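Much of our argument rests on the idea that a fold can be written as discrete symbols. Part of our work consisted of pairing the sequence of a single chain with a tokenised description of its backbone. The amino acid sequence and the backbone structure tokens for this protein are reproduced below.
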Amino acid sequence: MNKDTPPNFFQRQFWLNIWNTVTEHSFYSLLQAVGVVLAYLLLRWLLFRLIDSILERVLSHESRIGLSEERAARLQTLQGLFRSVVGYVLFFLFGILFLQALGFNIMPFITTAGVLGLAIGFGAQKLVRDVISGFFIVIDNLFVVGDTVTIGAITGQVQEMGMRVTRVIDVTGRLHHISNGDIGTVTNLSRYPLEDFIEVNVGAAADLNQVVKAINTAGEALFANSEAHYLKNPPRVLGITAFSATSITVRVAVVSDPRDLPAAQMRVREAVRAALLAADIPLA
């Protein structure tokens, strides 16, 4: 057919040619898009495996020379941070390739990247602040994965630290997602053992010397128990905090790791109560 001849819209061949052209182009575009997605998933999996493998080798090597728990937790924190950075970078790069495969012209976006970057920068100040804060938290070693921390009104164990968000699980099992840029004052409860206390009420007529001796002896016996690894020091009597005509309140110090402290206090209460009853000391 002559190219100057106007197309005959009523011919079957005309519409078949258009259909073949569209389907051929769509097929190749779809094939490229699927290839980009598969390449993204494969490369992401390989890089994540590489990061995990490097960490495992470092941990395995340093465990033979005495790797501290703090350094191991720091390496795990860096692992989560690296995985987060790699994930964001790959998503951005392969997102561009995916749009290209679908036929979108991305050159106008690239040529105007300066203006768009400025506009996005104003709109994404929170994101930039979260990322920068995350790096400074790692550099300053404020906390690592596994630490028990208090951030604002939230107290719990750090489960994961990403490039933008830190995840903390509290004692009730609730998982809190905290933006790194919103992290201000941090109280790290895992760097040193905590000293807390329990209070025991005994009868006003009880012999205080006998009370102190019974509680301290029970504390030393509990600390010597091989299963009482949660205690850092033997529980001991600090003194009297209150008294009345019917009772005396005695304070007992309990030193333990933050995660083990509630369980340690309960076990010390059980041991102290049993010791007082065995010594025939009246409880109030």
Q: What stands out?
A: The first strand starts at residue 148 and ends at 151. The beta strands are 148-151, 154-161, 165-170, 175-179, 186-188, 194-203, 236-243, 247-256. Residues 12-63 form the longest helix (52 residues).
